[in-house]
């Protein structure tokens, strides 16, 4: 395995561990590092996931990646919309 491959492998393990921890105990982790709790974090994620399709499209247009990368952006974009709608529904229910 090349050095670059090792670095991506270790980064992948880090992202996997972080993802699992955020699924199991998000507020514990967020509070530990001084971030707002999940409701605000969910809102932030809408913007970051929603913008992925634009970044991925630019990568494809510049020839950095194949066309299929846009499919990942579509999934991120649609999941961001879903989260936004769910947060809006939760806000309406609390009124």
Structural key phrases:
single chain, 95 residues, mainly alpha, 2 domains, 4 helices
Your description of this structure?
This protein has helices spanning 3-24, 26-32, 38-61, 69-94. With 95 residues, the chain is an all-alpha fold. It has two domains: 1-35; 36-95. The protein is flat, with a radius of gyration of 17 Å.
Topology:
Layout: H1 3-24, H2 26-32, H3 38-61, H4 69-94
Helix pairs in contact: 1-2, 3-4
Number of distinct helices: 4
β-sheet strand percentage: under 5%
Q: How does the helix and strand content classify structurally?
A: mainly alpha
Q: Tell me, what's the shape?
A: flat
Offer a concise description of the structure.
The protein is mainly α. It folds into two domains: 1-35; 36-95. The protein contains four helices and no strands.
